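Protocol step 4 of 6: structure prediction from sequence.
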Amino acid sequence: MEENQMKELQTGALEENKVQKSKAEEKMLTLEKFEEASETVKRVTQETKLVYSKYLSEQTGNKVYLKPENMQLTGAYKLRGAYYTISTLTDEERARGLITASAGNHAQGVAYAAQCYGVKAVIVMPTTTPLIKVERTKSYGAEVVLYGNVYDEACAKAYELAAEEGYTFIHPFDDLRVATGQGTIAMEVIQELPLVDYILVPIGGGGLATGVSTLAKMLKPNIKVIGVEPAGAACMKESLKNGTVTTVSPVTTIADGTAVQTPGEKIFPYIQQNLDDIITVEDDELVVAFLDMVENHKMIVENSGLLTVAALKHLDVKGKKVVSILSGGNMDVITMSSVVQNGLIARDRIFTISVLLPDKPGELVRVSSVIAEKNGNVIKLDHNQFFSTNRNAAVELRITMEAFGTEHKKQIIDALEKAGYPNIPVISINLSGLEKNPGFKYTPEMLFKGLYALVFGDLFMKVVYHTRPYELVPGETNKTYERLNGRCKAFLMKKHPSWNGFKQLCNQIVDEFDHILVTEEQKPRVGIVGEILVKFSPSANNGLVDLLESEGAEAVVPDLMDFLLYCFKNTEFKAQYLGKKKMTACMGRLGIKALEFFRSPADKALRKSTHFSPASNIDHMADMASEIVSLGNQTGEGWFLTAEMLELIENDTPNIVCTQPFACLPNHIVGKGVIKELRHRHPDSNIVAIDYDPGASEVNQLNRIKLMLSTAYKNLKREKEA
């Protein structure tokens, strides 16, 4: 037989198999098949009776029941779908060996089911999968392959291995047999609670939601089935909105079991037909829900399983019987401890304050007495005598303590303030190397996360300030910021945030703000420069950004990273003229390259933008400043203050507020000293220097800023007329 004929026959056979499989699958989601699956899975599943939650019922005003699938032998509901699917395979299909991709729970289900049938199982898992899930999967005799950062990448690898080795692929969710097995949960719920009104079901790829919603509607058409997704991986919600299967990117959530980019195509029509709504939940809500389950129900539930618990407060109904499906409980101790800690912090059960006190006998006892009188429990004390050069004037005492909650925390802080120990939030980071006691140890992980956070902060500052004054829909900018900021926080909470994830988030931030509808209106652009604290802190500059926006202007604030670049840039001058080692300059140059590298994803995203521009290069800023002030001026903000003003003028922001603390001589000399020269070189520049101090007159500050704005509006009008 000729080779071409053979290929045609093989292709025809494959297509025929696909058709037959498709026809078989069409018949899967029937009441008969659900009943069959229900009997089949009883061989391997535990009976998970509903648990009435008095605590959650009181919190929500509904009668809340928990379906504890976290108590299954493999720690999750996934065993149902895996075992039933494998039971429907032919002996030949099982003999070829089984393969799947999974973030952990489906992996354990397939591994255990394969062990029951005595067949080989290969599981491809993302590299981010918690270690406990990897080890438990291996314990059931499966071969584990770690590949990719998310499920979708692992799945592509599993398909590749299946084609190479001839394995039978068991899809974790886009398989109607799997959905049928998982849907048996609905039968158990309705049998036990016939009058149930709502079932909340977690959604990753959609297999569980397909099975539960389809069977629930068959048995009780009036029942409401609500899907719940993590806000950072809401692929099903996006797909339903678009009316077609949609891929979301990036995926950023601590709910690793539901971190799916693309939902299933085969199951999607059933979701469209049977799912009543989808609720999205932020990661910080899962953290709080974990504490609820541990403290009030004595249950360990993984983050994906907590979705339905966190969603209860989003359910706008009262007096209904609601079942939350707890899909799994596979959580390693390290993740658990991190979630507990963050949960306690979120609820103000653990907090840290920093107070100043004279370095003399009895002060520590006095502080402790104040805390003890308010029933605060001190966990840790850090006594920093190097906080000030004058130890007798002030030393820092950093106190970490337990409290009963927000109100109790406030009582403790108020008592300390009344006793003369106000809380001062202090983190000491000094690039000059003078600070030998920062109060914490630097680690590579901490530095990486810090730099990621720094870039996110600068990026948000740039896009928010440039969008909010022009938004067509009031509040849309802040709403977008809150949502994306939540995703950034979730990303930074990961043990090892990936570089690719960081780049994806930078692109997403710029892209989403780019698509906010804005007016064509021209407004005065006002730059804010000056001493680093006063420039960035609203409490130090009396809410200067809000003031400018309320007066119809756009605030422009240079990046915080520019200040770090300035510090590194100074090492070159010090090595050349002040006798510092050349190695110091080399390290400074490496520091500049490192910071520019970390900022590069944001800069690239901004360059592609239609509304925003990237930051300036520090060498270019130094060159501009050197024409007016010596780079040897390194007191206060040194030459950097001048460079910032020149950068603003160069980028069509001639209106500038130079902020400075009262009596800060270096800033007064540099800031005010160059204004005359700047006006000479740039006649359209409109610069005002404002002193900020608790004793300074706010009225005077306001009047001077409004006078500057009046000039800005006149200049803008003249430009339009010209």
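Step 5 (inspection) to follow. The first helix runs from residue 3 to 26.
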